[in-house]
């Protein structure tokens, strides 16, 4: 498992920073879908639920990249 730094337009980024941003965008999309169908009305604490979903998405993304064996 090796994560290599990524250079975009002369700026060096950590792969973790890119995964944080990508997982946040995915959670925003999932949150809008949940809002559209009214699913957040059924959870006890919506902000805590969204944070938990964010952690699940981020952890899954990190594990996928780590076990894929490649670097971004």
The share of residues in helices is 55-70%
Number of domains: 1
Major beta sheet summary: 2 strands, antiparallel
The structure class reads mainly alpha
Individual helix count: 2
Tell the overall outline. Answer: elongated
The overall pLDDT, averaged over residues, is 87
Layout: helices, strands, pairs:
Layout: E1 6-8, E2 11-13, H1 15-37, H2 46-68
Antiparallel strand pairs: 1-2
Helix pairs in contact: 1-2
Outline of the structure:
The protein is built from 2 helices and 2 strands.
Write a structural description.
With 72 residues, the protein is mainly alpha-helical. It has one domain. The chain contains 2 helices and 2 strands. It has a two-stranded antiparallel ribbon. β1 (6-8) and β2 form a beta hairpin. It is elongated, with a radius of gyration of 15 Å.
Which properties best describe this structure?
single chain; about 70 residues; mainly alpha; two-stranded antiparallel ribbon; 2 helices; about 65% helix; about 10% strand
């Amino acid at each position: 498992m090796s994560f290599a730094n990524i250079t975009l337009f002369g700026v060096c980024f950590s792969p973790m920073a890119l995964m944080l941003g990508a997982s946040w965008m995915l959670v925003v999309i999932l949150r809008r879908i949940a809002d559209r169908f009214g699913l957040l009305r059924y959870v006890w604490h919506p902000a805590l639920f969204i944070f938990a979903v964010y952690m699940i998405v981020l952890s899954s993304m990190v594990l996928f990249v780590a076990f894929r064996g490649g670097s971004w």
